[in-house]
Specification:
EC number: 2.7.13.3
CATH architecture of the largest domain: 2-Layer Sandwich
Structural class: alpha+beta
Pfam family, one: PAS_8
Strand order of the largest sheet: 10-9-8-13-12-11
Strand content: 15-25%
Largest sheet: 6 strands, antiparallel
GO biological process, one term: cellular response to phosphate starvation
GO molecular function: phosphoprotein phosphatase activity; phosphorelay sensor kinase activity
CATH topology of the largest domain: Heat Shock Protein 90
Distance between the termini: 89 Å
Shape: elongated
Number of helices: 19
Keywords: Kinase, Membrane, Phosphoprotein, Transferase, Transmembrane, Transmembrane helix, Two-component regulatory system
Radius of gyration: 54 Å
């Protein structure tokens, strides 16, 4: 029934009728015109057959122009041509009726195509009329000796035929108009319910939260309208709820810190949230997953989920655009379809904390164990009798004191690293000259530098006093200077530069020491990370110096940059924004 309704579509029915009317009119004219042409052609052909005995004699073509002129009708034109198409006789007696006519269509059909008869209709340039031409070949002893062509004015369709044609076309036009009127009436009647309900439906779409009022409808459509109102009320309510749910879902989808993507049954990425784009630094587009994801381990997990139809998970590490540790979960959306959802968790910080925790346990346990072991060992030696030897007693007590100081220094360093921003700003901010702070630290480490014959060269382009937390700045200078001395070779130099530009204070410390590899530079500022365990232990360092520098520089609104190469030394640059420090100082004074 539905197929029949599609076939009997009113629009297509009208189109078919129009096409049939045009085809009927065309073929009616065509057949009438063809009939007239056939009649004229037959008449001219018969006349040529009657003329051939008078033209052809034993010696070939014989042209008696007087007889030929008398045999040609009033509206006819006779032309006799030789076997090459040259005019031998033309009844029009026009000056243009000379030369060759072998290229005329009717002559060409006889001479070149080998037909016994050629026909064409065209405007004659010689007599300036539209003529119908009939040409017939003339043979003698099976040899072509010429062509006789007879033409007359093209009569076209007779008046009777034209009148009949007009009647047929008029009937078709009236039939076509009647069909159009009937189609329009049927269409208008079928549109009445739509015209009545359309404004109400539009109002419901524009204001889905408003309940539409029932309006009186014509009696024959009242039940239909009532049903539509009820359906519209339920549909609008569901639509409004679904819209709210979609907005909530879209907000959650785009604002989750978890990456989510959807694969369709062709394994194309059809949806991905902003977190996925940020993780892989790509704009999401609909594309096959193995073209968008370039990580082999990730595509392997997807293939495994597709093959097993079970949830799979694993971890990958990507290096570009930045190093990230990602946990991947791939599962099928439902058993009834072949769509899959991928969930990606960024566990970079978790894994980094785990590595930092491992480094901390390893390093700090060793650093605490070394001085503690020395203190316990020498104490036991003293208690075992060495205390009775004044020289040994003094030497062992000196070692115990040094190791105790080392243990205390380590504990203080850890405590400083654990201080928060709030703890730092509890310290008094006061006007101080950073040049004096640096010079004081150089004096404190003078003897340590002297022991390794290291020259410390300090240059300052800052002449004014600045508002700066003295304790925090002192900790930054102390750790940079201590590291530079600790890891510089003997008889080397350390350069310290202090400059100020655009209200930004820059501290630069250069050494010519052993340097830091590119791999270690990636983690050098992590808490408790040590570049080389053996080197740190031999030098007595805790591996916390640069962590403290970065920690306190960031709290002061600054940043740290490190440039180093193995065997070429290390340069650390600390930049501190003085505007931020001044603003914090003023706010603190106002609160007091």
């Amino acid at each position: 029934m539905k197929k029949l309704q599609k076939i009997v579509n009113p629009v297509w029915l009208v189109v078919i009728i129009i096409i049939l009317v045009l085809i009927g009119g065309y073929y009616t004219t065509y057949f009438f015109k063809k009939d007239v042409i056939d009649q004229q052609t037959k008449q001219l052909s018969k006349e040529i057959d009657l003329l051939i005995p008078f033209v052809v004699q034993d010696n070939g073509l014989v042209l008696d122009e007087e007889k030929l002129d008398r045999s040609v009708g009033e509206h006819e034109r006779l032309t006799v041509l030789d076997e090459s198409g040259m005019i031998l006789y033309d009844s029009s007696k026009e000056s243009l009726a000379k030369g060759s006519r072998k290229n005329r269509p009717e002559v060409k059909q006889v001479l070149e195509e080998g037909k016994t008869e050629g026909v064409s209709i065209r405007d004659s340039q010689t007599v300036d009329e539209k003529l119908i031409y009939v040409a017939k070949s003339v043979y003698q002893d099976n040899q072509l000796i010429g062509v006789i062509r007879l033409s007359e004015t093209y009569q076209g369709i007779s008046q009777y035929v034209e009148n009949f044609q007009r009647i047929v076309i008029t009937i078709m036009v009236l039939l076509f108009v009647a069909i159009l009127i009937m189609g329009y009436y049927i269409h208008r009647q079928s549109k009445k319910p739509i015209q009545f309900m359309l404004p109400i439906l539009r109002q419901a779409i524009q204001n889905p939260e408003k309940k539409q009022k029932v309006i009186d409808a014509p009696g024959e459509w009242r039940e239909l309208y009532q049903t539509v109102y009820e359906l519209m009320e339920e549909t609008n309510l569901l639509y409004y709820k679904q819209l709210k749910n979609e907005e909530t879902l879209h907000f959650l989808f785009e604002n989750l810190d978890i990456g989510i993507f959807i694969l369709n049954d062709r394994l194309e990425i059809t949806l991905a949230n902003q977190t996925i784009e940020e993780m892989f630094q790509k704009k999401w587009t609909i594309s096959p997953y193995d073209e968008w994801f370039t990580e082999p381990r990730l595509t392997e997990l997807i293939n495994q989920a597709v093959e097993t139809k079970e949830a799979v998970q694993g971890e990958i590490r990507i290096e570009k655009p930045r190093t990230q540790d990602l946990k991947i979960v791939i599962r099928q959306l439902s058993i009834d379809n072949n769509e899959y959802v991928g969930i990606i968790y960024d566990v970079t910080e978790v894994r980094q904390i785990e590595r930092v925790h491992e480094d901390f346990i390893s390093n700090i346990s060793h650093e605490l164990k070394t001085p503690t072991t020395s203190i316990i060992g020498f104490s036991e030696t003293l208690l075992a009798g060495a205390k009775d030897d004044p020289e040994a007693s003094k030497e062992f007590l000196t070692i115990i004191e040094r190791e105790a100081q080392r243990l205390m220094s380590l504990i203080q360093t850890i405590m400083m690293l654990l201080k928060t921003e709030k703890d730092i700003y509890i310290m008094d901010s006061f006007v101080v000259h950073p040049k004096l702070v640096i010079e004081d630290e150089i004096d404190r480490y003078r003897y340590k530098a002297f022991d390794k014959d290291i020259s410390v060269i300090f240059e300052s382009a800052v002449e004014e006093d600045l508002v700066i937390p003295n304790d925090s700045f002192q900790i930054i200078v102390k750790n940079l200077l201590e590291n530079a001395i600790e890891y510089s070779e003997e008889h080397s130099k350390i350069f310290i530069y202090l400059t100020q530009q655009n209200n930004e204070l820059t501290l630069k410390v250069e050494d010519t020491g052993i340097g830091i590899s590119e791999e270690d530079q990636k983690r050098i500022f992590e808490r408790f990370y040590r570049v080389s365990h053996s080197r740190q232990r031999n030098s007595g360092g805790s591996g916390l110096g640069l962590s403290l520098v970065k920690h306190y520089a960031e709290i002061l609104g600054g940043r740290v940059k490190l440039v180093s190469e193995l065997g070429e030394g290390t340069t650390v640059i600390v930049k501190i924004n003085l505007d931020i420090l001044s603003s914090n100082y003023e706010n603190k004074r106002l609160k007091e």
